[in-house]
Design brief:
This protein is mostly helical. Among the domains are: about 120 residues, no CATH class; about 140 residues, no CATH class. Helices cover about 65% and strands about 0% of the residues. The chain is built from 24 helices and four strands. A two-stranded antiparallel ribbon has the order 1-2. The longest helix has about 55 residues. The N and C termini lie far apart (about 110 Å).
């Protein structure tokens, strides 16, 4: 991935192109920083493509799996005369190596098995199965009177996606033709993985251009989102992947079925698959939770009978506290809720009701846990069983301190750090790096802070595809460059700084602004937008938009690099250093402090109880009293 590349397009003179290349080099850090940025971009792309699995695993490996056993070896080194605490290190190693990987390996393995046994819709979210089923069932038979094949299904699905992107009440002829073209190209490349990925990438670019051209709100519309229905949407590439999985499973089965009552058969089969997907989510989650309950037993066994974290701090016979051995009895829920017919149940699972929101909130994304599932795993799969199986009060205290902080950090810290850094970089660069909801500026300080705090909602850092869709091909916006200006202005960016990123763009905008008596350094967003809107058909504006034509233009690269730097910094350095080194150190120091305080208090009490009173000779005292008498 090239950070400094400039390709304004074929038009324009060579001198201007070369100058733009030189100017873009000036906007990036030179020397070692360029290599750091390239590495950061690779890490950011890896995290973006792999989702929570990659992000969590990197933080887990660098922040817990590797440093904590090393810190465990040095636990109480001073008190143990420099001897390595192998028992405590073994406990740390077993606990950390089993916990993180199992959260993803178990659902990943079960999902792979489910796809083989029950079909590819096992990996498709419930709402997508239902929406594709509605599209499929509405037109199950082609003009020849036979059940439709994959290509016809693709055409019907793309028709809905394009119609929704254009906000058409009924698909136009142009939409129907585009959908047919998309379907033909996708079907022809489906058998070859490389060709399929290339085709989906090209279709995604074309879809973004269409969505950009028809968007009513340029500032807040996510051009990468493809809506299958009014309530079901996802990034275009992800939607196409779900579409193909549905076709490989249900469309193929329906094509072999008798055409009589085919619509009813599709509806019944779709409902069955929705319930199957729900069952798969529950089963995967239950399997992860069940294994997490076992892990404390395994790492306690690796540690030995005693709490190795106390080694060297107190006498061996006082280390274990048996008072925590009793386990509370679990109450079994014998209730068996009924949801009525399968169609009614599916409606609840995929609807906008409480049951639907809960069911969709616990859906896996591949082997990735949703945020509600992650919170559930952290609370009931990690904190609860570890606390219940703690060896003593010191172990319990360390578990609560270590794992409560770790779970909170893993759930929130990386995303919140990225949002915070993007906010700082937006102010400095003028570029929009995170998407904010409409009316964000009008919200109270508390509400805005809450939007940054929410990991999955509220303010969201722009993905690579979103950055490309916003910062390249700006002439494709509904209102041309005015639409681009509305995006920057509506999201709180600074047009003066944006257009000052290269000398070419700065000079063009400055010349246009000078005619209206403005300067690019001081002109407001509104003034710049108005000036460019008036000159939208001029050669200057055409030259300006040409600079944004390429997907690797300076604005795209700058925005990607700024976001990538702090993604890499958060995931690879800040979070791991805190979790892997600082937190174990805090735990060790806190336990030592508590034990020292307790021992000091015990010593004080022992001194009071062991005061030596003078011996009294009662016979001598009696004789002395007799003499006095």
């Amino acid at each position: 991935m090239q950070i400094n590349r400039i390709n304004p397009g074929a038009s324009g003179n060579t001198q201007r192109n070369n100058k733009a290349k030189h100017n873009n080099t000036n906007t990036s850090f030179k020397g070692p920083m360029v290599m750091v940025d390239k590495a950061a971009l690779k890490v950011a792309d890896l995290i973006e493509n792999g989702g929570l699995f990659v992000s969590f695993t990197l933080q887990d490996m660098l922040g817990t799996n590797l440093p904590r056993p090393l810190m465990g070896l040095k636990r109480n080194a001073k008190e143990n005369k420099g001897e390595a605490n192998k028992s405590f290190a073994a406990k740390e190693l077993v606990r950390e190596m089993l916990t993180g990987p199992s959260m993803f390996i178990i659902p990943g393995a079960m999902l792979a098995a489910g796809k083989k046994l029950f079909g590819k819709t096992t990996e498709v979210p419930m709402k997508f199965i239902k929406s594709f089923g509605d599209i499929h069932g509405a037109q199950p038979i082609n003009e020849a009177g036979k059940a439709i094949g994959k290509q016809d299904f693709y055409k019907n699905a793309f028709t809905e996606i394009l119609k929704n992107a254009k906000s058409e009440p009924k698909a136009s002829q142009e939409t129907l033709e585009t959908a047919a073209d998309f379907a033909k190209r996708l079907a022809s490349s489906a058998k070859d993985k490389a060709a399929k990925n290339e085709t989906i990438g090209k279709l995604s670019d074309e879809f973004i251009t269409i969505a950009k051209k028809h968007a009513k709100d340029a500032a807040h519309t996510d051009f990468t989102q493809a809506a299958v229905s009014q309530t079901t949407s996802a990034p275009f590439k992800e939607t196409v992947s779900h579409m193909m999985s549905y076709a490989d499973d249900i469309v193929e089965k329906a094509a072999k079925h008798n055409t009589n009552k085919l619509g009813g058969y599709i509806k019944k089969l779709t409902n069955k698959k929705v319930i199957g997907r729900f069952a798969a989510n529950i089963t995967m989650y239950a399997a992860v939770m069940a294994f997490l309950q076992i892990i404390p037993r395994l790492y306690n066994k690796a540690e030995g009978k005693e709490n190795a974290g106390l080694k060297g701090l107190m006498k061996e016979e006082t280390i274990n506290d048996k008072s925590l051995d009793e386990k509370p009895k679990e109450k079994k829920d014998k209730s068996n809720p009924s949801f009525g017919s399968s169609a009614s149940f599916v409606k609840k699972l995929t609807g906008n009701n409480i049951i639907g929101k809960m069911a969709q909130g616990i859906e896996f994304d591949g082997c990735n846990l949703s945020f509600p599932l992650l919170l559930g795993v952290m609370g009931f799969g990690i904190l609860l069983p570890r606390t219940m199986q703690a060896k003593d009060k010191y172990d319990k205290e360390e578990i609560l301190r270590r794992d409560l902080v770790t779970c909170t950090t893993m759930c929130f810290a990386e995303k919140e750090l990225r949002k915070g850094f993007s906010k700082l970089n937006e102010k400095n660069s003028g570029l929009v790096l995170a998407a904010k909801e409409q009316g964000f500026k009008d919200k109270s300080i508390f509400r805005r802070f809450f939007d940054y705090l929410r990991p999955e909602k509220g303010v969201r850092v722009l993905s690579t595809d979103q950055i490309i869709s916003k910062y390249s091909g700006i002439d494709k916006y509904k209102d041309g460059i005015k639409g681009f200006c509305e995006f920057i202005e509506g999201q709180g960016g600074n047009l003066g700084k944006v257009f000052s990123l290269t000398d070419d763009s700065k000079q063009i905008v400055q010349n246009l602004l000078a005619k209206d008596g403005h300067d690019i350094a001081t002109a407001s967003n509104s003034a710049i937008k108005e000036t460019l809107s008036k000159a939208i058909d001029s050669d200057d504006v055409k030259k300006l938009t040409e600079l944004f034509k390429d997907k690797n233009n300076p604005w795209v690269n700058k925005a990607k690099t700024l976001n990538a730097r702090f993604t890499a910094l958060s995931v690879l350095i800040l979070v791991p250093v805190f979790l892997g080194f600082l937190l174990p150190w805090i735990n060790e120091k806190s336990t030592k402090k508590r034990i020292n305080m307790e021992q000091a208090e015990n010593n004080k009490n022992n001194k009071i109880n062991n005061i030596q009173l003078p011996e009294i000779n009662s016979a001598k005292v009696f004789d002395d009293i007799t003499k006095l008498i």
